[in-house]
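User: I'm writing a tutorial on reading structure tokens. Could you give me a worked example: one chain, its sequence, then its tokens, then a sentence or two explaining what the tokens reveal?
Assistant: Sure. Here is the example chain.
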Amino acid sequence: MTFVEISINLARIARCTYQRGDAHGAPYSRLKNRVLSLIIDPIKTKKFLEPLFKILEIDS
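And here are its predicted structure tokens:
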């Protein structure tokens, strides 16, 4: 790789890190969202799918 290619790739990495974060500034916010989605979303999904379960005669 040439110096120019390395410099371009470094700029791409810096931009991506700036836009999406490096997970060190607020590491628990992403973890909190994942845990909440595991706990809260299945409840919403189950409630949403109950009519389908009744149609298909599946015990939920």
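What the tokens reveal: The helical segments are 3-20, 27-56. The chain has one domain: 3-57.
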